[in-house]
Fold:
Amino acid sequence: MKYFILILVSLMACSSLAKTTANLREGVMLYGYDPVTYFTQSKPLRGTSAFQLQQNDVVYHFANQKNKDEFSKNPQKYSPQYEGWCATAVAEGYKYDIDPLNYKVTDGKLYLFYKGWKGDAKKPWLKNEPEQIKKADSNWPKVKITEE
Structure:
């Protein structure tokens, strides 16, 4: 019995060491913006912790219960590509933070981009989006496991 408890405690410790590779701000995806609104509104809306959901070690905030329920039905549809990292950076082989208001929905997928003093990462993406998507999709398995 004591070996069972020791194994159980060891497994719990290992699972608590597991860390998500997602781009989180204060533990929340999309800086707290509601992922469903990227697809349903003219611009994304801020969510609230009152309508919060954890999916695969990632916390999402929603603007309302309806959006939370919609996300719950099909999280893959509403989750950002590359776990919320800048799509252009992933295409170039690295992780970089995003501006949650700088995005594009293409073929039902949400792509996010950096925008700040270094420039607008969406601009080079748009020059040849199909090729950028191929490069980012190809790079993602390697980029995913790297540090920011």
Summary: The helical segments are 2-17, 37-40, 65-73, 75-78, 87-92, 122-127, 129-144.
